[in-house]
UniProtKB/TrEMBL annotation:
Molecular function per GO: zinc ion binding
One Pfam family here: zf-C2H2
Annotated GO biological process: regulation of DNA-templated transcription
Zinc-finger found in the keyword field: yes
Name listed for the protein in its UniProt record: C2H2-type domain-containing protein
GO cellular component: nucleus
Organism annotation: Cherax quadricarinatus (Australian red claw crayfish)
Coiled-coil residues: none
Record Gene3D superfamilies: Classic Zinc Finger
Domain C2H2-type: 41-68, 69-96, 97-124
Keyword set, alphabetical order: Metal-binding, Zinc, Zinc-finger
Key word Phosphoprotein present: no
């Protein structure tokens, strides 16, 4: 079974992984119907509903302002553990995302994707 923080990050992956998410998620009492998955978890503050309990917990933090994940190096706090892991790379200098065409490295996958456009432009000219 996945830890809550890992499951939360998995929930943010693309919809193409729906069946693996169903088998590996913290799905508690949802059931399948002809139209897909029944949304069993309801927000206490608004009409939001979701199939996954971890999505509900993350969503409800938008109402409560709760930020349970805190950086051990500074005062940064956030609502999701995966965001904290990205933030901590600022302090550690870890750059796990490497360009296959040059020495460029980044701490964030989004930055590498942006960087890769440079190579796409160079190859096209």
């Amino acid at each position: 079974m996945l830890m809550r923080s890992e499951a939360r990050c998995r929930e943010e992956t693309s919809a193409t992984n729906i069946w693996s998410k169903l088998s590996n998620s913290v799905l508690t009492s949802a059931s399948l119907s002809n139209s897909g998955v029944t949304k069993m978890h309801h927000c206490h503050y608004c009409p939001y509903t979701t199939t996954f309990r971890c999505n509900l917990l993350r969503h409800e933090r938008t109402h409560t302002g709760e930020k349970p994940y805190s950086c051990p190096h500074c005062n940064f706090r956030c609502t999701q553990n995966c965001d904290l892991k990205k933030h901590i790379r600022i302090h550690t200098g870890e750059k796990p995302f490497a360009c296959a065409h040059c020495p460029y490295r980044s701490s964030r996958s989004e930055s590498l994707k942006s960087h890769m456009r440079i190579h796409a432009v160079n190859e096209g000219s």
